[in-house]
Write a structure and sequence with these properties.
294 residues, mainly alpha, ABC transporter involved in vitamin B12 uptake, BtuC, 13 helices, 2 strands, globular
Length: 294
């Protein structure tokens, strides 16, 4: 049963992050996801200090607030003339450092260590269970991640056309009266929510891989957004299951193995994708040269 809960937890993390990652990749905002996954740390630390609990709703609120603050600061710096990559690097490193200071200075009051923040504790999710009316309902992490995934699916399902148009052509979306800024911040809020829900399972560093790698792999395999979303979830699920058994075989980090498998799947797609694979592109170039030579 331990195997099942770990694989299910990894799959839910990958699915939640993968759906949002598709929109981040399409909008060329992959590094913003990286920034949010690190900069929500101060919000989580402050929530712990206020509530003295990991299970508080304040944790989600604190992370979401700092996720939105991150996006606001990045855009403010960009509008001030700073380059995009520099803005992202400055904001997320500064906020992440503040979070590290808060945790290290208040270690006695915060039931969270930096190893948990960076690498997660997916191997122990089955021990922290939800007890209701005397019944063991399974790991709390699974309920939290499952609820997060449902919220993400509901938001994307309700506003699919708006998210799609904002991702592909924000200028047209604005011309049609769609509040582009609102959906931008809604997406960033969902990324923050997904990040904090995944913290204990995969940590701040590895959640970036879950946000970007499955979505990037799916991007190479299809030109349709709906199919890309499905592929991203499927790739995340395969990475979680295969990564767990690889980690068990090598006696290595579970979360790290899951991301490594996802990276391997990306490499295969990059080389052999029938649409955008490197080999296909090389063959097309060879044919063009043959035609030109003849």
């Amino acid at each position: 049963m331990t195997d099942f809960w770990i694989i299910l937890t990894g799959t839910l993390v990958a699915a939640s992050c993968g759906v949002l990652g598709c929109f981040l990749v399409l909008r060329k905002m992959a590094m913003v996801g990286d920034a949010i996954s690190h900069s929500v740390l101060p919000g989580i630390a402050i929530a712990f200090l206020i509530s003295s609990s990991r299970d508080s709703l304040l944790m989600l609120i604190g992370a979401a607030v700092f996720g939105l603050i991150t996006v606001f600061l990045i855009q403010a710096l960009q509008q001030g003339g700073l380059q995009s990559d520099a803005s992202i690097g400055i904001v997320f490193t500064a906020l992440f450092a503040i979070g590290v200071i808060l945790i290290s200075r208040n270690a006695a009051n915060i039931d969270l260590d930096l190893d948990c923040v960076l690498f997660g504790e997916i191997a122990y999710v089955q021990w922290d269970t939800l007890i209701w009316n005397g019944y063991d309902l399974g790991p709390i992490a699974v309920w939290m991640l499952g609820g997060t995934f449902l919220i993400i699916l509901a938001a994307i399902g309700l506003f699919y056309k708006q998210f799609k148009l904002c991702a592909f052509d924000p200028a047209l979306a604005a011309a049609l009266g769609i509040p582009v800024a609102l959906f931008h911040y809604l997406l960033m809020g969902l990324v923050s929510l997904s990040t904090v829900a995944s913290f204990e399972s995969v940590g701040a560093i590895l959640v970036v891989g879950m946000l970007i790698v499955p979505a990037s792999t799916a991007y190479l395999l299809t030109d349709r957004l709906s199919v890309m979303l499905l592929y991203s979830i499927l790739i995340g699920a395969i990475s979680s299951a295969a990564g767990y058994y690889v980690a068990k075989w090598l006696d290595a980090s579970i979360a790290g193995s899951m991301i490594s498998v996802a990276g391997l799947l990306f490499l295969l797609a990059f080389l052999f994708s029938p649409l955008h694979g490197l080999i296909v592109r090389m063959r097309k170039r060879g044919r063009l040269k043959t035609v030109e030579a003849s």
